[in-house]
């Protein structure tokens, strides 16, 4: 916690110096990982919606 005589912004500045930013390579790898997982998830949801759920709904309607 900041001392009373220190200003808020000087405390923020000191804390910002402690941040360890990821490298460019790490950022690109994580971005690609998020994109791949998002695409895979989208395909799975599309498959479930288009094939599985629509067939189940047709079965229920035809009963």
Automatic annotation (TrEMBL):
Location of the protein in the cell: Cell membrane; Membrane
The protein, known as: Protein translocase subunit SecE
Similarity remark: Belongs to the SecE/SEC61-gamma family.
Function according to Swiss-Prot or TrEMBL: Essential subunit of the Sec protein translocation channel SecYEG. Clamps together the 2 halves of SecY. May contact the channel plug during translocation.
PANTHER family in the record: PROTEIN TRANSLOCASE SUBUNIT SECE (PTHR33910:SF1)
Cited Gene3D superfamilies: Preprotein translocase secy subunit
Complex and partners: Component of the Sec protein translocase complex. Heterotrimer consisting of SecY, SecE and SecG subunits. The heterotrimers can form oligomers, although 1 heterotrimer is thought to be able to translocate proteins. Interacts with the ribosome. Interacts with SecDF, and other proteins may be involved. Interacts with SecA.
UniProt keyword Zinc, yes or no: no
Keyword Ion transport: no
Transmembrane segments: 27-48
